[in-house]
Amino acid sequence: MDFVSIRIITDDVARLAGFYERATGVPASRPDENFAELRTGSATLAIASTRTVPLFAPGAARPASNSTVIIEFLVDDVDQVHQNLAGLVEDFVTGPATMPWGNRTLLFRDPDGNLVNFFTPVTEAAIAKFAR
Q1: Across residues 27-47, what is the average pLDDT?
Q2: CB 3.0-4.6 Å disulfide test: which of 52, 94, 118, 128 passes with 48?
Q3: What residues contact 60, with CB distance under 8 A and at least 6 apart?
Q4: What is the pLDDT of residues 7-26, one digit of tens each?
């Protein structure tokens, strides 16, 4: 089994996809107004409209109500990314900080309030773990 993607349900696909395009530098494919995907080398971030939820199970997902999942992206230089996100991100939860497990991390919220973590491995063990 392979983990392939995570999907965010939102009331505004265009706004959220645009935010992630600017934040990550990854262009989104948009097959229609209800769906967008940002594909990286290892996984896909899918963004879908609330109008798609009934296709699966009515009421199964609610937009802008996540408080437990953190969407994480490995970046080359989290400090530089922090500078680049100034003016785009309205809610930085923490500025760049080095975690005990060896990653330098930047935690913020996207426009729907989802937690996003951009991180860079900085210790020898963390660098080895995430070697590309």
Answers
A1: 96
A2: 52
A3: 53
A4: 999 999 999 999 999 999 99
Structure tokens at 126: 């963390």
Say how far apart CA 96 and CA 11 lie, in whole Å.
30
DSSP for 81-120, please give it: HHHHHBTTBSEEEEEEEE-TTSEEEEEEE-TT--EEEEEE
- What are the pLDDT digits (tens) for 45-89? 999 999 999 988 988 888 988 889 999 999 999 999 999 999 999
**Torsion sign, CA atoms 58, 27, 6, 84:** negative
Nearest to 118 by CA among 81, 73, 77: 73
Three-class SS of residue 121? strand
Q: Are 120 and 80 in contact (CB under 8 A)?
A: no
For residue 80, the SS3 value is helix
